[in-house]
């Protein structure tokens, strides 16, 4: 389907975010960096960032009128053709901002949907994304039509009649219903497939996007799952059989999470996430070299709670220790310690205590501490197996060589 963002490939982009009571300047900057990474993943070229300090977003134009003029002046001078906002814009905000800036406007939700649409490979992922896109589009229909009118160069032309919008709404509602039925059918097929996998212990890799889940999957299962330095490299779940020390289990690689994952997307990706829901053990992967890894851990924990309120055993995997850097503090420096002043060893102690040893610090890329990971994984899978088949001593004698 035609996405609402249109083609933003190679488009020079301006990014806009807010500094609020709950989002200090450092956080806001990190969020804009993440937005820039998202924009690049979608093919745009971010070239300028605007931040404004506000208690809450302006209900009419997101930023205040002064900032909007500043952005407009920049656009006029530079010729950049795209503005990306770091939050979901209401239909009203979108319309007003578009009217004022007269260039293509997209928001964070729209950008994520666009990336998902580009990356979707299977019929399943495509259907899920299309559903999310239509759901996003529905309340914004009026704007879509005004958009079309303008493209036809109809200055002063009358907007589309209510009936036109109504017809279009009905078409989209029908399409949504159809996609939902289609997804239900696919879900049923996939549930059967999962049942057919038998009673093997199931382990799922979960985590923020770009932390190295697929790289770990490839390492553990010696398979070739697509991994690269872009956001949302993985959309479809891959399941592989892995054997550690003669103990077989199923390992699945899943879609990465992100801050403010569009609600519709979580909804429509529910079946992809069944893999997570039905897992016996979760391997929560984090990128310890990322300045914001602790918040990323929190975002993932929250999203997991939404998907699956049942508490599952979790092992935390702190990946990318090879890329971890820190600056030791001078002894006479009395300013408060920041994340940059904390060593890997200190982090390890803190998290080991917090997780009661249920964590492993490793590097998937440089294959550091992989034996420790395999050992930890073996013990965890075995524990689940023993609990499930308490009388199956025979199996255990053969598994433990
Ligand atoms: N420095 C370093 N980079 C790593 C490590 N593990 C993975 N990477 C890199 O991190 C990037 C993302 O890796 P992926 O395995 O695609 O990450 P993912 O979590 O599957 O990402 P999504 O599927 O997009 O959610 C790639 O460029 C990897 O090469 C590591 O241990 N150290
Ligand atoms: Mg991946």
Task: Explain what this protein looks like in three dimensions.
The protein has 401 residues and is α/β, with parallel strands linked by helices. It has 3 domains: 12-116, Rossmann fold (3-Layer(aba) Sandwich); 120-148 and 158-196; 199-326 and 338-400, P-loop containing nucleotide triphosphate hydrolases (Rossmann fold). Helices cover 46% and strands 15% of the residues. The protein contains 14 helices and 10 strands. The protein has helices spanning 25-41, 65-78, 91-101, 108-119, 123-137, 141-151, 162-196, 213-221, 263-268, 274-277, 293-307, 344-354, 370-388, 393-399; strands at 12-19, 45-53, 82-85, 104-107, 202-207, 238-244, 247-253, 281-287, 314-319, 359-361. The strands form 2 sheets. The protein has a 6-stranded mixed β-sheet with strand order 6-7-5-8-9-10, with helices on both faces. Strand 9 (314-319), helix 12 and strand 10 form a beta-alpha-beta unit. The radius of gyration is 24 Å and the shape is globular. Mean pLDDT is 84; it is low at 144-158 and 396-401. The structure holds guanosine-5'-triphosphate and magnesium ion (MG). Residues 207, 209-215, 227-229, 231-234, 256, 319-320, 322-323, 363-365 line the site of guanosine-5'-triphosphate (GTP). Magnesium ion binds at residues 213-214, 227, 233-234, 253.
